[in-house]
Amino acid sequence: MPTSPSAAKAATKLLSVDEALSRILSQIKPLETTESPLLEALGSVLAEDAAADRNVPPFRNSAMDGYAVRGSDVGSAGARLRVVGSVAAGAVPDRRVDAGEAIRIMTGAPLPDGADTVVRVEDTDNGTEMVTITRSTPTGMAVRQAGEDLRSGEVVLRRGAVLRAAEIGVLASIGHARVTVHRRPNVAVLSTGDELVDITEQPAPGKIRDTNRYSISAAVRATGSAAFELGIAGDDASDLRHSLGNAAFGDMVVTSGGVSVGDHDHVKPVVDAMGAMDFWSIAIRPGRPLAFGHLRTKRGDVPIFGLPGNPVSALLTFELFVRPALLKMAGHTRLHRPRAMARLLDRIEKPSGLRTFARGVYDRDAETVRATGPQGSGILRSMSLANCLIDIPEPLAAVEPGTDVTVVLTDLPEDH
Predict the structure, then answer these.
(1) Are residues 43 and 162 in the same domain?
(2) Is position 413 within any domain?
(3) Based on the domain organization, do 79 and 136 belong to the same domain?
(4) Does some domain include residue 415?
(5) Domain residues for 86?
(6) Hey, which of 163, 214, 230, 343 would disulfide with 167, CB 3.0 to 4.6 Å?
(7) Contact 216, 228 (CB under 8 A)
(8) How far apart are CA 46 and CA 378, in angstroms?
(9) For position 416, what pLDDT does the model report?
C-alpha cells in the first residue's frame, strides 16, 4: 500500500473553485427516502407531494369573538339586533340568523346559516339579549371561508420542500402524522495531526487543542446532518487507515489536516489505497490543499473530504464545498447561500491567481462590507466575527475601498 509522502506530489494544475465544486456535486447523490414521524421531519426535505385530504378550514368560521349577523343589518352604527343564541368553538349552531338577529360567536366557531358577517365584540355594547352595534361593519368582516387556506385534493407541498415549522403545521392540518423525506446524512469527522490534543487537556509544549473537530462537527449539525466525532488520528499511515476504516460507516467522511505535501501528510496516499482521491489542490485562499475522493466500503463508495488543517481554512472550505454536498445528499435543491453586492470599506490584499474569500461584516442597510481584521488562516476569530465572505476574483492583487464586491451571506439559509 503506497503511503509515502512521495505519493502526495503537488498538483500540476490547480482547479478553480467552480470547477472543484462542480466535480464534487456531480458525484453526490441524494440519500434514499425514509418515513418519519411528523415532528422528527423538521428540517428534512419532502420526498413526495402532499395533497390536502379536505378543505382547510373545513367550514365557514369566525376569525374573532363577536356576533354573527347579516351584513345588511350592520352597515351603519346604532343598529340594534336581537341576540338569539351563541356558539362556541367546537360546537355547531342550533339555528340560523334571520334579519334583525345576532348570535354570539367565539373565534373558530362555525358561522350559522344566514350570517355572512361577524361584528367584533369591541364594536358593540356586548349585550346579551339585545346588542347595539357601535361601529359600522362591512359585509364579510371576520369570516373565514371554507377552503380559503387549502382546497381538498390540492397539492399543498411539493416534493423537495424543506420542512420548516410552517410546513410541519401545514402537513398537520391535512392529517399527515408521518411523512416521506430524504434521510439525513451521517457524517464521520476526524482530525489528524500529532500536534493535536483534546480540548479537555492542557497542551504540552508543541501541542495545540483540536478545534477543527468541534467547529466542523458543529457545521455538519447546522446543515441538519448528524456528526460523529472519531477523535484524532496521528501522523502515521497505519493509524489513519485504522481511523478511516472506522469512519466508513458514515454517508460521508470529513477529515482535517494532512492534505498538503509534507513528510507527515498521509491523507491522499492512504485514501488512494483505500479508494480514490479525485483532486486535492484548488486555486483558493485560504484552503488551497483540499482533497476529495471516495472510500471503498461493503456498502459502496463513501465520499471523503480532506480539509486543510488550519482552522479558518478548514471551516471556510467546509462552507464552500462540503456544505453544498451535504445539502444535496439530504435532498435539497437550493445548495448555495444567497449573495449580495456591497461597497468595500477597507483595502484587502490577496495573492493574484487565487480566488480569495475574506471574512467580512456586511451591513445590509448601508450595503457596505468591511473585513473582520487580520485574515490569517489560523485566526479562527475572523470567522466568528464574520456574517459573510467577501468573494474576490483570482486576477486581482488587491481591492480598494469603494469597490463594489460580491459577498456570500453565510448567516442566511439556502432555502427560503
Answers:
(1) yes
(2) no
(3) yes
(4) no
(5) 61-144
(6) 163
(7) no
(8) 39
(9) 59
Sequence-distant (≥ 6) Cβ neighbours of residue 318 within 8 angstroms:
216, 219, 254, 305, 307
CB distance 302 to 252 below 8 Å: yes
Same domain, 47 and 161: yes
Check whether residue 51 and residue 121 sit in a common domain.
no
What is the identity of the amino acid at 392? I
Total count of domains within the chain: 4
Measured from the Cβ of residue 206, the count of other Cβ atoms closer than 10 Å reads: 7
Measured distance CA(296)–CA(292) in Å, rounded = 13
CB contact at 8 A, 219 and 319: yes
Query: What pLDDT score does 10 carry?
Result: 46
Cis-peptide into 58, omega within 30 deg: no
* Residues lower than pLDDT 70 in the chain: 1-12, 260-265, 415-416
- Look up residue 278 and give its amino acid: D
On the question of a cis peptide bond just before residue 311, with omega within 30 degrees of 0, the verdict is no
Question: CA 415, CA 383: separation in Å to the nearest integer?
Answer: 22
Is 414 inside a domain boundary? Answer: no
pLDDT for 414:
85
CATH number at residue 387: 2.40.340.10
- The grid coordinates listed for 158 are 411539493
Euclidean distance between CA atoms 270 and 356, whole angstroms: 29
pLDDT digits 0-9 by tens, 363-416:
999 999 999 999 998 899 999 999 999 999 999 999 999 999 999 999 999 865
Is the full-model pTM beyond 0.85? yes
pLDDT at residue 148 in the model: 95
**CATH code (residue 77):** 2.170.190.11
